[in-house]
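re the bet — no i am not wrong, look at it urself. input seq straight from the record:
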Amino acid sequence: MVRFSRFFTLLSAATFSLAAWGQTPDYVEMMQDHSINFYDVVDAFNSHWEGQSVEKGRGWKQFKRWEAFMEPRVYPSGTRPVPQSLYQGYLAGAQGTATSSVGGLGNWSIVGPFDGNSLNGIGRVNVIAFHPTQANTLFAGAPAGGLWKSTDDGLTWSTNTDLLPNLGVSAILIDPTNPLIMYIGTGDRDAGDTYSLGVMKSTDGGLTWNPTGLSFNLTQSARIVGMAMHKDSTH
């Protein structure tokens, strides 16, 4: 129920803030009508702001918050689920969880890392990547602890990124046709424990790393949230 309360609070706050500075733009009314396609609302917002400079208190930031909240919750077509449907789905899911057996949830066990932390291994992991040809080799990227590698299916872990200029890793990309070529997106994508210096590349399977053409200055407060390799990439 908290999620839905948060949604309505966000929508109400955004609507109030957007209307407070004068005549309500069309896209504000469109935001409140769940029958209007999400992408049509975004297009109306972009048309309204085209050629205008962003000014504090005029609703630009409030809409962007609404857009970021709604985008992962709409259907691929842009159709927006009505709140009643969301709530019914929530109730059904909660009931199903309460009546399901533990055995139906799958078998999970922790694989580490377990040491190297004053909190006995407790911490966040931003990203995990699996070696395309070596079944027992996997990589984990930490918000401020660099890139870790395991060659025994998570039993033990090691790192060689302690001397990199930025220890946050939020994205890992391994070339499926040549696993010696790897990329990491530096920085912490979530809480901003470390900001990004850009994408770094390795041509020896992660032994050494070098900067790429996508580089940032820490003062830019940039974040990299993910990476994907084009199928026709020539590296």
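see?? The longest helix spans residues 2-20. told u. also The CA atoms of residues 196 and 222 lie 5 Å apart. so pay up
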